[in-house]
Write a structure and sequence with these properties.
Two copies of one chain form a homodimer. By secondary structure, chain A is an alpha/beta fold. Chain A is globular. In chain A, β2 and β3 form a beta hairpin. Chain A has two domains: 128 residues, Urease, subunit C, domain 1; 293 residues, TIM Barrel (Alpha-Beta Barrel). Chain A contains 17 helices and 16 strands. The interface between A and B is large, with 47 and 46 residues.
Chain lengths: 438, 438
Amino acid sequence: MSSLQAQRAVRGRFLDIQHTVSQASDIAPAIRYIEDGLILLNAGKISWFGTWEKGKDLLSADTPFEHYPDKLIVPGFIDTHIHFPQTEMVGAYGEQLLEWLNSYTFPTELQFKDKAYADKIAQFFVQQLLKNGTTTALVFCSVHTESVDALFEAAEQQQMRLIAGKVMMDRHAPDELCDTAESSYHDSKALIEKWHGKGRNLYAITPRFAPTSTPEQLQKAGQLKAEYPDVYVHTHLSENKNEIAWVKALFPEQKGYLDVYHHYGLTGERSVFAHCVHLEDAEWDCMHATHSAIAFCPTSNLFLGSGLFPLKKTWEKQVKVGLGTDIGAGTSFNQLQTLNEAYKVQQLQGDKLSAFESLYHATLGGAKALDLDDKLGNFNLGKEADFIVLDLKATALQALRQERAKGIEDALFALMTMGDDRNIHTTYIYGDPVYVKY
Amino acid sequence: MSSLQAQRAVRGRFLDIQHTVSQASDIAPAIRYIEDGLILLNAGKISWFGTWEKGKDLLSADTPFEHYPDKLIVPGFIDTHIHFPQTEMVGAYGEQLLEWLNSYTFPTELQFKDKAYADKIAQFFVQQLLKNGTTTALVFCSVHTESVDALFEAAEQQQMRLIAGKVMMDRHAPDELCDTAESSYHDSKALIEKWHGKGRNLYAITPRFAPTSTPEQLQKAGQLKAEYPDVYVHTHLSENKNEIAWVKALFPEQKGYLDVYHHYGLTGERSVFAHCVHLEDAEWDCMHATHSAIAFCPTSNLFLGSGLFPLKKTWEKQVKVGLGTDIGAGTSFNQLQTLNEAYKVQQLQGDKLSAFESLYHATLGGAKALDLDDKLGNFNLGKEADFIVLDLKATALQALRQERAKGIEDALFALMTMGDDRNIHTTYIYGDPVYVKY
């Protein structure tokens, strides 16, 4: 065989899911586990993937080559809901959603009008993502355009595929943190023109949530979405019962919380709604009918006492779902720790969340929720080469447990129960190792 | 001032709670926070504690001395419920309590009839406790006397105060894992004579839980307790709804689950019941009346989907409570991670768990639950010198958050939300540093 053009090759133990599925039971048959595999990377993409035995002759002698014989390589984690200006406020005590916003979040986000400050935290935030094996995220910035510039600039340095947007918020927040319907439209539009599709960056129209936008602002958000249909919509939905009651009081003319967004044209294939803990049946149907997606954020739902997300219902109702850390209401940047708590949230409801289903939500399922499953989420040919090398034995306790693991699914489940950032050995973005532990 | 006899002195920032309380609101006034403090240690005990300013002249020049200017020193963590033979099985997938026991636990515990194996895991277990800042624990061994010997021998090497006992189990388990009413009595009695009060070791009569003991065995357990009233009783209670229904079917003549133990004389000042997630009102009253204690095990209750423990009720009903990791159904040896989830369990019930109350449960309150608050739990004069030096900034994210902390309570809460074993810098047992990170 003649050698393939490759800028880099990686050999090791690979695990991914070959295609998206419509039922949880279809995940296990779609698992692809190669104990001694090889991946070739070219121009940021996967140019070949298979067993070492089949692939070794494709390698030319001068291709940069890494071998991870005792590690596990999986697609990069995808975080479908996170707030970059809240990086510094994880662990804010004692409140549920609405009081937490007023007491902690708004004062913190005020700092992001300062571009230098936003730059500093954006750099830190991107490093935290990489250190935790998160290669793509859908990100809330603050209301300030500076925060969006800061984040996209930081992402661009790493060639990361991030989706982000400026918060739109014109009421029920401190004056200094409010824009107007008009200014939010123009600022968002300018940011879309500047960033959407530039390199790997993508833009999301980002009204914080219905209570902090006037009908006029939501109408403007819908207008933007109509003008730029391939731009994302990213907001919050049905996280907390007091929040839901408030939305119903603010928008009595709509049928419910989701109907507010739907009315203004904000549902759809590239719309992601964080939380959805307390959706009503008609709302599940609307999510399905509009191909909208949910970001399930277990550590946040527990930390704020929001409730237990019924993950099983996403399969029953055929609604796309991804996993979100929701920093800073969430308590960890790490998707392994997020999956630990996702499992517990399901256990409390009498449902089982398998390791393979967990992997699906954290990788290919998340990519599908972001309408990026043609580009991300597994090792299929032509996909963008974002993946992570996991050390399954990062602590002595993990090593003891892993020595007793009964196969790859058990090993993966143990990792998801005990893992944290220490298990991320190397993070590859667009074909390059951009983070290496120690 | 003349110098005091001291084998060691430690200077740093100290935080503890000065006395036990009967209401959560009394904890904050009992907090003792010394920014620049000094502790003198002699013969395993605290011989002096106060500010550096007042204490520095008591030090003689040749006293070994450590200074931790940028750390936080708190009493050692107390784990009121943990299974040492389950160290290797954290993260066993997919079951709730009863199936989990049969599928995973019993096969794992079978290995502990081999003394060499038990020794190996006992050494590992004790190291895990120390690495996680746990200085005292109430521990389930396996049914084998070898497991008890192994654990006490390992604890003795470190001079740790551990309470442990042999499982009593004579039905509803694999034959190889069952003793008999008679043999369990004699074996436990011999272990009590051998270990209880030897060095810092204390013994606990340990029927696994009502369903795996015949009435005859429970009667024998009660007989032992009557013969050795200062020995502990350690078992499980009301963890899972199917378990409760099973107990009611097995013991129709008793008024409820707790009444089974009460009937056989197993409640009392040194009786600790793990879980108590679903206690009935009469059971709360019996716990109070008998001065029995609860071990609250949040990571385990979530992992097995057992339910949400109503911590607030322990104050209302005046029932003693400590914190338990419940390894291997729990998911971490670490009390900081356990407190992270304790907070979430309370948030889901609309209750707030403050950082100071959390510290209380993990230290002095745990000591009280174990009837050891005269010996452990804070820095009072004459107490045994078990304490830990915490690094509040063990990760970059923690450092960012701690730089913004608004005082010690906020700093402590951030630690409890984001912390893990990396935050344990040094663990002192009986006056000596027995674990130092790296």
